[in-house]
Description:
The protein has 540 residues and is α/β, with parallel strands linked by helices. The protein has 16 helices and 24 strands.
Amino acid sequence: MFGQMMDYPLTISTIIDHGYATFPKKEVITYMPDGSIHRYTIADLYRRSKRLSHALVHKLGVRRGDFVGTFAWNHYMHLELYFGVPGAGAICHTINIRLASSQTEFIINNAEDACIFIDANLVQLLEPIATKLATVRSYIIMGAPENFATTLPNVIYYEDLIRDSPEDLAWESVGENEACGMCYTSGTTGLPKGVLYSHRSTCLHAIIAGLPNCCGISSADRVLVIVPQFHVMAWGLPYAAILAGSTMVMPSCLLQAEPLINMIIRENINKAGGVPTIWQNVYSMLRKNNIKTLPLKEFLVGGAAVPPNLIENFEKEFGITVIHAWGMTETSPLGAVCRLQPEHEKLSAEEKLRIQSLQGQKPPLTELRIVTEKGEIAPRDGKTVGEIEIRGAWIINSYFKTSSRENFSADGWFKTGDVGTINPEGYLQITDRAKDLIKSGGEWISSVSLEVTIMAHPLIREAAVIAIPDEVWSERPLAAVVLRDQNEPVSAHELRVFLSGSFAKYQLPDKFVFVGEIPKTSVGKFDKKKLRQLFAEGKL
Ligand code: AMP
């Protein structure tokens, strides 16, 4: 027998409708590239999203199921696209602005974007490939200054597009399982792959992301969304923030530590989300400028492992709680969030830090398991290492336009390619990417653990560890490290002594190479493929 409740589809329009009905006066603030500050309310966001939706259909001829590309920083117009595009029944394809142009060309053609909404200060990245983007009928320019010029064809200005459109249209009535958004993986090992989010998966993700055990946001919060909107829909934070009625601050391209600190202070930000490098930079700048307090109470950090000393420094010096989280494009992205539970309060600071450095516990509506090399499901003992598999309400079921099941288990779980353990309390620890594993003399060495521990050294800014071939041990770890200050060197011997408290002798890197910078991927992660290539070419 069926339950007798309404069939009420979980769609993106219900998110903005709720924001409009309940928190119309809440502010959405953008720090614009030219230094000006744009402020408006959720009611304005709602109305302009409606006008955009209307213009998409009636002026640009966008139809249900079409892909609409965005090539933009974090700002209010990009938010309007987050609501206006799915509201028209189309799919908001957020294009990573940092990809190599060949990859950008590939994903736009693969998605068959009908039009692209692009920031005026980014047009130079698409101009050289525009002739190869056959499906793109028009380019809509956002934030164009006076006397703006571009060689992009069929240009329309954003404000011109939405100016005369009515704001009283009804959202397109879509099914909750229809697609609302798409992001491509960053493609460090081959071509990027499209991940197609549904209205339902995005709504459920937004609801759960707001919970106290996850990102924990409410109408009392002022959230700075640092993670780019083109990176896994800014971790879903905009949707979660509108549902929760939080005030949202968007930094556009002002992602350097100084403007971010300025925003945090001026806008009285208490919550934020960004990758570890951003927070490392913020911390260094706070020290440099001798800033002792911030309104920030906690921030979310993920996308790469977080060095424990970063967590400790923010906690001790600023009273800011660092919430470590794990996820990926294929998982929308929330796959684990690390919060201390009440029973942990009695633990020592050191024990608490050890827990906070883990990647965390799974959110509701998802499941995690570890599968060993032998194909067995590992016990949750915090020791048995294997590949992390996940399934749940917002986890990928298949990649866009491919029928390959390579990344899925026979019983339908997504194989993440990350390797780690789960402890009896359900806390996940990532020890590596499968492709970055180091096997030395038959024993696994965790490159991630080495990296975060080396980065805990006060004189080290960044560290990436790769496997290098070795005749005796088959592989040995090599650490590429960046000094915090060139005038304060540290020797390989000192680093080895520093590490020996936490690692067995065979796990210590044989070589430390001091470099000016570690190559990064398009989403700011250590590019170990590039590092291995540099090593192979004798350039490290
Ligand atoms: P992306 O799809 O670009 O967001 O990349 C996802 C990958 O980033 C994951 O598969 C992990 O390898 C890595 N990652 C994300 N969060 C963390 C974390 N907290 N600790 C370690 N690695 C992480």
